[in-house]
Write a structure and sequence with these properties.
Layout (H helix, E strand, L loop, with lengths): L4 E4 L4 E6 L3 E7 L2 E10 L3 H12 L5 E6 L2 E7 L16
Parallel strand pairs: 1-5
Antiparallel strand pairs: 2-3, 3-4, 4-6, 5-6
Length: about 90
């Protein structure tokens, strides 16, 4: 079973991209990620639950941590393995 990487948010190099609207992406460790969802500090367990749901689908997942909360990122190359292609991603 794969486990998501947990990193400090400062290690993500952010960028914006267009997919039926402007969305947030990031680069970490030579991998391009899309922002799946952000969570408050009080929602830590929900962030981890969301991340593990996607690792169970063989997606590459990263969780970034900041004083404001947690963000779950999905590796762009692994999106084909994610069953639900109509993901609601961060804007």
């Amino acid at each position: 079973m794969r486990t998501p990487s947990v990193i400090d948010e400062s290690l993500i190099r952010p960028f914006k991209y267009w997919r039926e609207g402007i969305h947030q992406g990031g680069i970490y460790n030579n991998e391009i990620y899309i922002c799946l969802r952000s969570f408050s500090t009080e929602e830590r367990l929900k962030a981890y639950e969301t991340a593990f749901e996607h690792t169970d689908k063989n997606a590459t997942v990263c969780i970034s941590v900041s004083p404001q909360g947690y963000t779950v990122w999905l590796g762009l190359r692994s999106l084909n393995s994610v069953v639900n292609q109509s993901l609601a991603v961060c804007q």
